[in-house]
Write a structure and sequence with these properties.
Shape: globular
Strand content: under 5%
Cofactor: heme b
Organism: Dentipellis fragilis
CATH class: Mainly Alpha
CATH topology: Chloroperoxidase
Structural class: mainly alpha
Largest sheet: 2 strands, antiparallel
InterPro entries: Chloroperoxidase, Chloroperoxidase-like_sf
GO molecular function: metal ion binding; peroxidase activity
Family: Belongs to the chloroperoxidase family.
């Protein structure tokens, strides 16, 4: 390789790094602006969190069709549910990063900053262009990309190579961990009941303390059963981010969470519990993610100390 080629590559790498830094910095400044606007702007009215013209307006979601074996699915229940309802391509293939970004925003009321940041990160992991490229859902299940060991809904890749379907035993343990009182007064609390006979055993709420306990145990169990177990700090944050979604977007409402995680379906009547007009910003989201991650581990440690 000639000296001129090396210099060109180094210059290109430097420019790319600087550009990425500027983009991320711009997203963070934009996110702060959205956060501040949300503090003073009126919340969206109940029943109108999903805007008119988008799938799911008024809690009326497109028909749910369970995936076929040939369909592409991934380790993310939120994306799988969107495909199962036809919000993104039902086969889970050839999805543009820009399209999925806008649909996540419209479906779950995550702020546009969060959606762009996450989709750009996935594109970078896959070595693709956020602006121009597409992906299949299964592509993002690459191990230690955004997929990670000790998931609350998937077995580790060491145990099961497929991340396309939830592990029902793990989901059952997660649901059983809920200790909060029943949640009332939000239209989404009627969603699961609209689909089937209410299950009295699900008349509880998932709390941050519940998720800290079950996450602590799951990480310990995974470390014992998986000889190739790894969980970096960033993947711990990913895990807590996934769990925090159950508290923010889904409000901890157990019947809805159970349907969402076991069937990867949005119940009739469901809408995001986040009613902020600009959606759930990264700043607001981290106010749940960070306390959850900091609590994970401490619950079990305190229990051990009581034994001695």
């Amino acid at each position: 390789m000639s000296a001129s080629t090396v210099v060109t590559l180094l210059a290109f790498g430097l420019v790319s790094t600087l550009l990425d830094t500027l983009i991320v910095g711009g997203l963070l400044i934009w996110d702060l602006g959205l956060f501040l606007y949300n503090l003073v702007a009126p919340a969206r009215r109940v029943g109108t969190v999903v805007l008119r013209g988008h799938p799911g307006f008024g809690g009326n979601w497109p028909d749910y069709i369970a995936p076929k074996e040939s369909d592409s699915r991934c380790a993310c229940p939120a994306l799988n549910a969107m495909a199962n309802h036809g919000i993104i391509p039902r086969d889970g293939r050839n999805i543009s990063f820009r399209h999925v970004t806008s649909q996540i925003n419209a479906t779950y009321n995550f702020a546009p900053t969060f959606c762009i940041f996450t989709s750009r990160y996935i594109a970078q992991i896959l070595g693709r262009s956020f602006l121009n490229d597409t992906f299949d859902l299964e592509d993002i299940s690459v191990h230690n990309g955004i997929e990670h060991d000790a998931s609350l809904t998937r077995e580790d890749t060491y145990i099961s190579t497929s991340q396309a379907r939830p592990s029902l035993p793990l989901v059952e343990k997660l649901v059983a961990s809920a200790t909060g009182p029943p949640l009332r007064g939000h239209p989404s609390t009627n969603g699961a009941a609209n689909d089937a006979k209410p299950d009295a055993s699900l008349d509880r709420t998932l709390t941050l303390a519940d998720l800290a306990r079950i996450s602590t145990k799951r990480r310990a169990d995974a470390a014992k059963s998986n000889s190739q177990f790894s969980l970096s700090t960033i993947h711990k944050i990913f895990g807590s981010s996934n769990s925090a979604t159950l508290l923010t977007i889904f409000g901890g409402h157990l019947p809805t969470i159970n349907t969402f995680l076991t069937e990867e379906r949005l119940p009739s009547g469901f809408e995001s519990f986040i009613r902020k007009p600009m959606g759930l910003t990264m700043m607001q989201f981290n106010a749940t993610v960070l306390p959850l991650e900091l609590s994970t581990g401490g619950e079990v440690e305190r229990e051990w100390r009581t034994l001695f």
